[in-house]
Design a protein that fits this description.
A hairpin with a 4-residue loop joins strand 7 and strand 8. The longest helix is centred in the last third of the chain and has 18 residues. The chain has one domain. It is built from four helices and eight strands. Helix 1 packs across helix 3. It is globular. It has about 160 residues and is α+β, with helices and mostly antiparallel strands. Strands 1-2-3-4-8-7-6-5 form an eight-stranded antiparallel β-sheet.
């Protein structure tokens, strides 16, 4: 390895070490999330921020806020935000996606403006919004429930039209 490569390797290792503690997994239970992050700073029963989950827990660890929405007792959605409002780097984003790839490989689907979208082989979806500085991962079941909620809400709003 040349001396020119060493700073890059050290930088990559630094990012890996700072992100490694911030790796919830879709499908984990609340107890598993507590074991990973410690006690949540906030936990509430329905509705969660998405309006489809049974419970939402907010954790803070290693400079990140992690919002986990539970659907049928397991993590259906996870939102990662750096405290202080800075964006996740590509390296941080990739490490989080890699950590949650046990159920399939993430495949970059599209980039529309400020949003990048990945789809995992099992139907889970990841959305990185660089302007609002977050990364959201959702199970296929959560995406399906969210689409149904959006359709029901639209139907209710337009029922008298």
């Amino acid at each position: 390895m040349t001396s020119l490569c060493r700073p890059q390797v050290l930088l990559a290792a630094f990012f890996a070490l700072t992100v490694l503690p911030c790796q919830a997994r879709l499908g984990e239970t609340l107890d598993q999330c507590i074991a990973r992050y410690g006690q949540p700073i906030s936990a509430k029963d329905m509705p969660d921020a998405l309006g489809v989950g049974e419970k939402e827990a907010i954790f803070q660890k290693s400079g990140y806020t992690i919002v986990v929405s539970f659907l049928k007792g397991s993590a259906g959605a996870e939102e990662f935000v750096k405290q202080g409002g800075s964006d996740l780097s590509d390296t941080e984003r990739d490490i989080i996606l890699q950590a949650d790839s046990a159920r399939g490989k993430w495949i970059k689907s599209e980039k529309s403006g400020i949003e990048e979208i990945w789809v995992r082989e099992d139907g889970a979806v990841a959305l990185h919004n660089a302007t609002k500085h977050y990364l959201v991962l959702e199970t296929k079941e959560c995406v399906t429930a969210l689409k149904a909620k959006i359709a029901t809400d639209a139907k209710n709003k337009l029922k008298d039209f």
